[in-house]
Amino acid sequence: MRRLVVILSSLFFFTSLVVDGGPVPFDVGVVLDMGSWTAKMSRSCMSVAIDDFYSVHGDYRTRLALHYVDSGENVVGAASAAVDLLKSKQVHAIIGPQTSSQAVFVSDLGNRSQVPIVSFSATCPSLSSPDNPYFVRTVLSDSLQADAIAAIASAFKWRQLVPIYEDSDYGSGFMPYFVDALRAVDARVPYRCVIPLSASDDRILEELYRLMTMQTRVFVVHASTSLGSRIFAKAAEVGMMSEGYAWVMTTGMTSLLGSVDAAVVEKSMQGVLGLKAYVPTQTSGFRNFRKAWKREYLKEYPDSDVPELSIVGLRAYDTVWALATAAEKIGGLGSGFKSSSSNYSTDLSSLPVSSSGPNLLNELLKTEFNGLGGKFRLVDRQLALSAFQIVNVIGDGERRIGFWTPAQGLLRHLDRSIGGRAYSASKDDLSPVIWPGDSTVVPKDWAPPTSGKKLRLAVPGPVPQGFNSFLQVDWDPFTKGPVVGGFVIDLFEAAVEQLPYAIEYEYVPFEDANHTSLGNYDKLTYSVFNKEYDGAVADITIRANRSNYVDFTLPYTDSSVSMVVLLQEQNTKSAWTFLKPLTTDLWAASTAFFVYTGFVVWVIEHRINEQFRGPPTQQLGTVFYFTFSTLVFAHTERVVSNLSRVVVIVWVFVVLILTSSYTASLTSMLTVKQLQPTVTSVEQLKANGHYVGYLHHSFVLGLLKKSGFEESKLRSYKSPDEYAEALKNGSRNGGVSAIVDETPYIRLLLSRYCGNFTMVGPIYKAGGFGFAFPKGSPLVPDLSRAILNVTEGDRMVDIERRWFSDESACSDQSNTITSNRLSMASFWGLFLITGIASAAALITFIALFVYQNRQVMKEAKSEGSTLRGLSMMVKRFDEKDPSAHTFRRTETKGEGGTPVVPRSVDASPLRVFDCSGGEGGADVVTARPSSDDVFASPGNDIVGVARSDSGVARGLEMTVVRW
C-alpha cells in the first residue's frame, strides 16, 4: 500500500510538471581543457552526477543545465570562454577552469559579475584570498599538504628539502606555505629549483646536474603530471633515483598518477613517496558509480581508452551535487542578470551582473553532504580537509603506508575512534618504505657533493706562541702546504670519523701571501658567512653577534671567562693566632651555649644535689666551672638527675666535635703555608685602578670595557709566558694585577706555572669553543652529535692527555683559595640539637616542680595573692627536696626484721602521734634532729611518726614499739 502511495505521488508530481512546463533550467557554465584526459574524465563524471542527483531528487523544480566550453589549455582561452558564458548564456555559476593559472583571471570575472566560480581542480592557495569573494574551491588547497610534508620530514629526520616546482601560479603559490611548515619543524629550504612549463629536456637536465653538485638528497616535486613525469625520467637518467636519494610528490601529481605513462612509473619513480587526499572507496555507492562512469565515458569517448578514475573526477561529481542543491534552495530565477549595454561578447568592461549570485554563493557555502570524495564541507570558501594518504610508488602502482590528519599527525591506520590521540610525527607510525634503489635504509638529507670538490675549512693565521697546544698552523718548506695540529684539530678530526658518511676537506689558513693574519675571529666567522670558506675549524668562542652570521656546533670546552691573579703568602702566626680558627659569630655562639647549658644543669640539680647548693657566689662559680671544664672533659661535679644527664651527654658530644675541629684548624694555620690571592674580585680591580691583561685580538676586551674598565688600564698579551711575566711584575712595575681570559687558556697558564697563580671565577659567561659553518649547513647537527660522542668517551681523555699532559701534575688552584676559619654555618645543626635537648629538659623539670607544689599556688590564689604564691614557689625551689633519694639514709633492721631507728641526737619533749588517719598511713621512719615535723623520744622508746602534706602532724592513737 505504501509503495502504491509513493508511485501515485510521483505520477502526480510529474503530471504537474508537464502541465506547468517542467523543471526550471539552471544554467551553469563549465570551462575545461577539453583536449586533456582529465577534462574528459571530469565531464563524464559530471554527466553521471546530473543523472544520479535528479534520480534521487526527482521532485526538485530546478535542473542544472551544463554548458561546456573549451579553454584551449591557455589563460586567454579560459577568460574568453568565461566571458562568453556570462554574456551569451548568462550562466548563474561557472565550474572550472581546470588550472590555477586560468582560475586567477576567471575568478576576477566572477567578482565583477557576482557569479560564483567553482573549481574542483585549481589548488593554488592564493586563489582563496579575500580579494576573490566569488571563487569557491571544492578541492583541497595546496597549503593544507605543507604541514603533512613537514611531518614526513620530521619523521625521517630531514632538516633540509629542495622543492622542484613549475614556474606558474600553481607552483609558486605553494612555496610560502611549504617554507613556513618546514621552519616549524626546524627544517629549511636551502635551494629552490624552478622549472618552466615549456622547459626542454636539456634545461631539466641542467637543473638536475646542479642539484647533484649540492649536498641535499631530499627533493619535493610540485608540478603537473606532464612536467613531473619528465623530471622523474631525467632524474633516473642521471642517477638521482638510486640509493641515498628521497623523492616526495605533492597531491597534484600523486592524485593523477594513473595518467602517467606506465613505463615512466616503473623505470623512473620507484620508491617515491606521495600525498593524496583520502577517499573511502570501499563502499557500494563508489562501486556503482565506477560502473556508471565507465559506461558514460565509453559513450562519450568511444575511441579512447578508459583512464583510471582519479580524485579529480570525484571532486567534479561532488561539485555538481553541491551546485544542484544550492540551485534548488534559491529556486528558479530566470536570467537574473542586469542587461549589458555592449553587443560584444568579449567586452570585459560591460559584463552583466547576476542578481542571483550572492544568494547562490551563500547557499553553496552552507551545503554539506557525504559525497564520493568524502565529507563535502566548505570552510573559508574551500573544501575542508579530512585526511591525507601517504603512498609509496612500487611497481606499476602505489602502496599506502599511512595517513596524516591535522589533529593526530601520522597514522598507520585511520581510526576515527582514537580522537584523543596526541599528535605524532614518528616514522614508527608508518609502514616500512621501499626507497629508490630498492633500499630500506632511510636516506640522509645531506651527503657530500659528488663533484669531487673538497670543503675549504678556514683555520686561524699565525697562532701566538704559547697557545700551540690548542692550535698549530705551520707551512711545510717542501710542499709549501699548511701543516696544522693541536687539540682543536685532533678533536675535529675525531668528530669527523664519527659521521655516518665521509667528507673530503682541506685546511686553509686565514692569512695572506706573506703569512700575515687577515684579522681576528670576528672577521674569520664573517668570511664563512660570505661563502669564502665552507667552515672554520678553530678555538672560536660562540658569541651572540657571531651566531647572527654562522651556525656553531655544540661547544667542546667550558663556557666561561675567568681571572688569574698572583698568589702571595699570608703570615698568620701571631700571639692571637689561637683565636683565628673560629669566626666571631662561632665564638659568640659557643660562649652563649656554655652559659646556657650550665644554667640548665644548675636549675635541675639545685634542689637535689649538694654540689649545686651553697652561697650565690659559690653556685655561680660552680655553674661556670662545670660547663667550661667540659672542654677538656675535666668536670668533677656529679649530676644526679636523669634530665641533667641527658643535657650533659648531648653537650659533651657537641664539645667533642667543636674542640676536634678547632684543633685541626689551628694545626693547619700553624703548620701549612697560607697562600692568598692578591685580588679577589673585578670590583676590587676597578676600585684600586689596577691594570688588567687580556689576550691580543680577544673578545674579552669588549667585555672589560662593558664592565667599566678604562681602556688605558687594559694591556694585551700574546702568550702564557707574557701573562706570567706581567703578573709577577704587578701593576706598579709595568705589569698587571690580573689576567682576564677564557677558562681553557687560563688552565693552560696554571698548568705551566703551578703554585704561582690562582684562578678566580668564572666572572663572565661565554658560549665555549665551537666550529663555525654557514647558516643552515647540514654538517652542524651531525658534527654536534659526533662531538658529544667524542667528549663523552675515552677518545677525549686521550686527546687531552696528549696536548695538556702537564696540567694533570698541577692541582686545581681554584680550590686552594678557601678560608681555614670555622664559621657558624658549619655547626648550627649541632647547636640546634643541644639547644632543643636543654630546653626540653628545662621545661620538663619546671612542669614537674609546679605540679608537685601546686598546693602552694592554690593556697596563694585562695588568699588572692599571685605574687605571694610565686614568692613561695621561689622559696620552695631554693629549699632542699627532702623526698629526693640523695637526702635519704638507708634504714637498718634488727632480728626478726624489726626496723631499728637510730636515736635522735636532739632530746625533744616526747610527743607521740599516730598518723594512721592522715595521708600516707603510719610508717616508722628515721628522723633528723633538724626536722620540724618529726619527733623522737630520748629513751629506748621507739615511736611511729609521719608528716602530712600540709606539714602539720595529726595523731589519733599512740603506737609504741619497744626493742
UniProtKB/TrEMBL annotation:
**Domain Ionotropic glutamate receptor C-terminal per the UniProt entry, residue ranges:** 456-806
Disulfide-linked positions: C754-C810
**Gene Ontology CC:** membrane
- SUPFAM superfamilies in the cross-refs: Periplasmic binding protein-like I, Periplasmic binding protein-like II
* Presence of the UniProt keyword Metal-binding in the record: no
Supply one GO molecular-function term.
ligand-gated monoatomic ion channel activity
The record's subcellular location field reads: Membrane
Record field: transmembrane: 586-604, 646-664, 827-851
Q: Which first-to-last residue range defines the signal peptide?
A: 1-21
The family database entries (InterPro entries) matched by this protein are listed as: ANF_lig-bd_rcpt (IPR001828), GABAb_receptor_plant_PBP1 (IPR044440), Glu/Gly-bd (IPR019594), GPCR_3 (IPR000337), Ionotropic_Glu_rcpt (IPR015683), Iontro_rcpt_C (IPR001320), Iontropic_Glu_rcpt_pln (IPR017103), Peripla_BP_I (IPR028082)
Cite the Pfam families for this sequence.
Answer: ANF_receptor, Lig_chan, Lig_chan-Glu_bd
Tell me where on the tree of life, at the top rank, the source sits: Eukaryota
CDD domains with a match to the protein in the record: GluR_Plant, PBP1_GABAb_receptor_plant
Name the keywords, alphabetized.
Answer: Disulfide bond, Glycoprotein, Ion channel, Ion transport, Ligand-gated ion channel, Membrane, Receptor, Signal, Transmembrane, Transmembrane helix, Transport
Q: What does this protein do?
A: Glutamate-gated receptor that probably acts as a non-selective cation channel. May be involved in light-signal transduction and calcium homeostasis via the regulation of calcium influx into cells.
Instruction: Name the protein family.
Output: Belongs to the glutamate-gated ion channel (TC 1.A.10.1) family.
Q: Give the multimer and partner information.
A: May form heteromers.
* UniProt-recorded name of the protein: Glutamate receptor
The gene for this chain is GLR2.8
